[in-house]
């Protein structure tokens, strides 16, 4: 659909009164200094006279700011005493009268005492006696007590779907408008009513004179959701992401297609890729990795310095699954997202490591201190918001999702940015979770389903960012990215932005008024904070646990913990040598898989987290020894591996590194996979390796999964063997096997692994031209994989064979051959004989 423009549509002031009434706000022109009590602030005699009665009757109600009435019965007044002293009860007045008190006169024999009463001290905290804070000595004429009952259940308000095409470069070429730099927000009334904005700014200003400690205490007491905090995560941000993820049907941690089917299954080889920008210390990522574990891989970019990622504080999740990358310069970069070269470098890095597809979703949670300038936080953060949106469009794959923190969205610049997202995504919502404090301007733009063909919008925003950088030290700025008439022309979007802004503005005004009341009356509190916390955690699937550092253990204890119930003797089994006497064991060819060995021994590798990694040869008499290689793996990981010296190049140009080659997987970051099929274990190990690999860290030793071949395809292995001159070999060529990544190593032989448990075996049906499973005991045959035929780890390990290649002829150029050793031709001939299609 073609885009339309409407320069006249709008004028929120025309409909403002009605909207304000719908929002439940009564905005009076009466000044703050004038006392104007409504019915909700009227006298509550029962609460004034009996606290116990009040506690029992109002235990389930919202806390109320009590005020005393100036109305007293006539018989309570002492004759000669004006209504000025009517606030004191009759007993007090009679006592003063007996002592000779007369209004306007002092006490004492000669009336020499002070004529005015001693006022009740309003001193709070460390303020001086008698100090009166402007803005806290009257009423605000805002009824905060009618706020909705606190609940863990939240509603999502999606903007109507965009029906116009994505703008192209030709259409956007004149959209950017440059003008005088603005540093005021009070006149931004295009997308929010004037009275609402002014009242919100007025409410914020009241707190400028308030001590920070008092403000925080009142805010903590007044917010029914305050006790949720960070649970066992790094910070509150993690719980915000848990909150948002639940409300939006886990569209981030369990993305689904348009029919509601999961896009990624944990049993599949595909990882859930995500990015986290402007996100130090990393609470968002900690939540995602806690939820998904090693089935997810994260990329992060944030500003280097005190607010960098604090991966060492990821107690709930394994930070080894997260890879920070700081733009230009990689791990040595500065992470400044406003620098175009950093955005481009991060984009390229993410695409290179996601098969050029991009991430499934990106989270952005940028912000910085605006102390003393809170009212213009939106303006001060405009470039940060732009760059977060731009980075999202740069690295999210088609169909992916986006979440970004913003603040007020009153200016046409901010609304224009949201409009571009509205055009580029299938659905957009502006949402404020209950974990976001109601008195602040924070809200989140949630975008679902990135459309194809958004490249020109991305390039346009890239150009806008360059222009903002060029104007940084001048009095000029980019004030519009989308013309107002274009935004007005989309009535659905225009109305949605006004409705959203005014709803959040009304909530914020009431929350600020409530905090003010809690500052004035320190006895007020929110009685349901603990219950609300429990309800939210239960609903979001977050255990109610304290945050504690992971328990440190020794490798032997951890090994027994991970292999509980397993006979330890299994790990000491030696592989059966493959020779002329044992060649018959591989007669059921389809039951076996094979892998090239690159070391003279295999080991078990155990990770306790980070670089605390140990190896063990399998004998109970052997000790677990610290791995000398530089590598990091998630805790609770147990693998069967080889340490292989890999080579690249030949002769003097050869480079050597030591790599970890996985032969089999037992436990992956706490997930026990020993009972799964060997093929599935290898597939999960490959997924695990993708998640933990760090391409940005060439200083770390690589970890790879062995290439697995069907036994009937063994000939493919010999095609990848060649003779190479190895350094220190005296110029003599040696047999070499080249892997998938173009690195080669000296092969020691071949591991042959049985993947089918007795009495089952696999065979090939010439009639149906399909493989099938056959039970030798019951003579039952089936094309479906019988669960009992799956060989778990201990069967594979116990039944494995090893064909040693030390003196056998494996390459045509090799001349020396030990007649007692199996040759390539002998084994291949045997396989062909017992496997015919």
Automatic annotation (TrEMBL):
Keyword match Methyltransferase: yes
Subcellular location: Nucleus
Gene3D superfamilies on file: 3.40.50.12760, DNA ligase/mRNA capping enzyme
GO process annotations (BP): 7-methylguanosine mRNA capping; methylation; mRNA modification
Residues covered by region (Disordered): 1-67
High-level lineage: Eukaryota, Metazoa, Chordata, Craniata, Vertebrata
Protein name: Cap-specific mRNA (nucleoside-2'-O-)-methyltransferase 1
Main location: nucleus
Keywords: Methyltransferase, mRNA capping, mRNA processing, Nucleus, S-adenosyl-L-methionine, Transferase
Domain RrmJ-type SAM-dependent 2'-O-MTase: 232-451
Biased composition (Low complexity): 42-53
EC number(s) reported in the record: 2.1.1.57
GO molecular function per UniProt: methyltransferase cap1 activity; nucleic acid binding
Biased composition (Polar residues): 26-41
Catalysed conversion reaction: a 5'-end (N(7)-methyl 5'-triphosphoguanosine)-ribonucleoside in mRNA + S-adenosyl-L-methionine = a 5'-end (N(7)-methyl 5'-triphosphoguanosine)-(2'-O-methyl-ribonucleoside) in mRNA + S-adenosyl-L-homocysteine + H(+)
CC terms in the record's Gene Ontology section: cytoplasm; nucleus
Superkingdom per UniProt: Eukaryota
Biological function: S-adenosyl-L-methionine-dependent methyltransferase that mediates RNA cap1 2'-O-ribose methylation to the 5'-cap structure of RNAs. Methylates the ribose of the first nucleotide of a m(7)GpppG-capped mRNA to produce m(7)GpppNmp (cap1).
Broad class of enzyme this protein falls into: transferase
Domain WW: 754-788
Organism: Notechis scutatus (mainland tiger snake)
Pfam families on file: FtsJ, G-patch
């Amino acid at each position: 659909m073609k885009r339309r423009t409407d320069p006249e549509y709008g004028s929120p002031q025309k409909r403002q009164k009605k909207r304000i009434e719908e929002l439940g706000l009564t905005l009076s022109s009466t000044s703050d200094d004038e006392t104007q009590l409504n019915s909700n602030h009227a006298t509550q005699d029962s609460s004034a006279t009996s606290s116990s009665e009040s506690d029992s009757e109002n235990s389930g109600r919202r806390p109320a700011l009590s005020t005393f009435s100036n109305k007293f019965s006539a018989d309570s007044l002492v004759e000669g005493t004006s209504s000025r002293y009517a606030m004191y009860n009759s007993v007090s007045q009679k006592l003063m009268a007996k002592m000779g008190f007369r209004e306007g006169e002092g006490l004492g024999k000669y009336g020499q005492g002070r004529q005015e009463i001693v006022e009740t001290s309003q001193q709070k905290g460390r303020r001086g006696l008698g100090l009166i804070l402007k803005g806290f000595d009257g009423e605000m004429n805002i009824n905060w007590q009618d706020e909705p009952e606190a609940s863990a259940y939240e509603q999502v308000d999606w903007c109507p779907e965009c029906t116009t095409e994505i703008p192209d470069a030709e259409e956007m070429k004149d959209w950017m408008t440059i003008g005088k730099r603005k540093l005021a927000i009070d006149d931004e009334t295009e997308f929010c009513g004037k009275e609402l904005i002014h009242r919100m700014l007025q409410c914020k200003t009241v707190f400028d004179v308030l001590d920070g400690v008092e403000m925080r205490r009142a805010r903590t007491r007044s917010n029914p959701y305050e006790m949720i905090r960070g649970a066992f995560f790094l910070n509150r941000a993690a719980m915000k992401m848990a909150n948002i993820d639940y409300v939006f049907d886990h569209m981030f941690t369990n993305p689904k297609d348009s029919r509601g089917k999961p896009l990624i299954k944990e049993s599949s080889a595909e990882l859930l890729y995500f990015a986290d920008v402007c996100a130090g210390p990393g609470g968002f990522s900690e939540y995602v990795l806690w939820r998904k574990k090693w089935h997810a891989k994260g990329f992060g970019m944030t500003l280097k310095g005190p607010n960098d990622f604090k991966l060492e504080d990821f107690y709930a999740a394994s930070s080894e699954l997260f890879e920070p990358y700081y733009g230009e310069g990689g791990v040595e970069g500065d992470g400044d997202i406003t620098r175009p070269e950093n955005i481009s470098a991060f984009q390229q890095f993410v695409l290179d490591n996601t098969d050029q597809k991009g991430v499934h979703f990106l989270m952005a949670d940028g912000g910085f201190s605006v102390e003393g300038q809170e009212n213009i936080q939106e303006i001060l953060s405009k470039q940060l918001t732009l760059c977060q949106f731009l980075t999202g469009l740069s690295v999210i794959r088609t169909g992916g999702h986006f979440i970004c923190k913003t603040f007020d969205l009153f200016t046409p610049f901010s609304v224009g940015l949201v409009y571009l997202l509205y055009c580029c995504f299938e659905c957009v919502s502006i949402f404020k979770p209950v974990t976001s404090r109601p008195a602040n301007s924070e809200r989140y733009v949630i975008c679902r389903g990135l459309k194809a063909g958004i490249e020109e919008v991305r390039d346009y925003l890239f150009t806008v960012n360059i222009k903002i950088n060029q104007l940084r030290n001048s009095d000029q700025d980019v004030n519009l990215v989308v013309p107002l008439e274009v935004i007005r022309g989309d009535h659905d979007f225009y109305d949605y932005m006004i409705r959203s802004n005014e709803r959040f503005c009304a909530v914020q005004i009431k929350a600020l008024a409530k905090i003010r009341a809690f500052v004035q009356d320190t006895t007020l509190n929110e009685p349901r904070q603990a219950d609300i916390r429990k309800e939210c955690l239960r609903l979001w699937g977050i255990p109610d646990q304290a945050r504690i550092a992971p328990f440190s253990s020794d490798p032997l204890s951890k090994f027994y913990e991970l292999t509980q119930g397993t006979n330890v003797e299994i790990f000491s089994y030696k592989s059966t040598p493959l020779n002329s006497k044992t060649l018959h064991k591989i007669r059921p060819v389809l039951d076996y898989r094979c892998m090239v060995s690159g070391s003279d021994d295999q080991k078990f590798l155990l990770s306790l987290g980070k670089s605390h990694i140990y190896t063990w040869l399998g004998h109970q008499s052997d000790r677990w020894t610290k791995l000398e290689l530089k590598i990091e793996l998630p805790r609770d990981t147990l693998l069967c591996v080889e340490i292989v010296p890999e080579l690249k190049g030949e002769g003097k140009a050869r480079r050597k590194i030591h790599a970890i080659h996985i032969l089999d997987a037992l436990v992956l970051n706490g997930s026990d996979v020993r009972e799964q099929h060997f093929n599935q274990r290898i597939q999960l190990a490959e997924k695990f390796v993708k998640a933990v690999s760090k391409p940005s860290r060439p200083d770390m030793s690589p970890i790879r999964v062995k290439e697995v071949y069907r036994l009937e395809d063994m000939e493919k292995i010999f095609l990848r063997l060649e003779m190479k001159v190895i350094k220190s070999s005296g110029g003599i060529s040696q047999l070499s096997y080249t892997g998938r990544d173009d690195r080669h190593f000296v092969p020691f032989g071949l591991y042959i692994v049985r993947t089918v448990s007795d009495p089952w075996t696999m065979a090939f049906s010439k009639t149906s031209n399909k493989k099938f499973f056959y039970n030798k005991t019951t003579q039952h045959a089936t094309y479906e994989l019988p669960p009992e035929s799956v060989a778990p780890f201990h069967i594979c390990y116990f039944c494995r064979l090893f064909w040693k290649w030390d003196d056998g002829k494996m390459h045509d150029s090799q001349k020396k051959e030990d007649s007692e050793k199996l040759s390539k031709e002998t084994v291949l001939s045997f396989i062909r004989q017992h496997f015919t299609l």
